Amino acid sequence: MSRAPCYQICCDFSEKAPKILTQLAQELKSLKIWRKQEAILKEKEKIERDAHLAILEEELRLLNKR
Known about the structure:
By secondary structure, the chain is an all-alpha fold. Helix content is 80%, strand content 0%.
């Protein structure tokens, strides 16, 4: 009766795992911060456009009054 060879996977993953997980956690945190910053920046730009539009509309209104 022959047995299938038993392969033992040997690597130093257990030593690298904490470093890899720490690096992944830092990258995830950075990504979350970046996404929040992007959302805030887009909202800021929208508010600035709206404010600029309001100023232009007011100037148009004043010009039409003359």
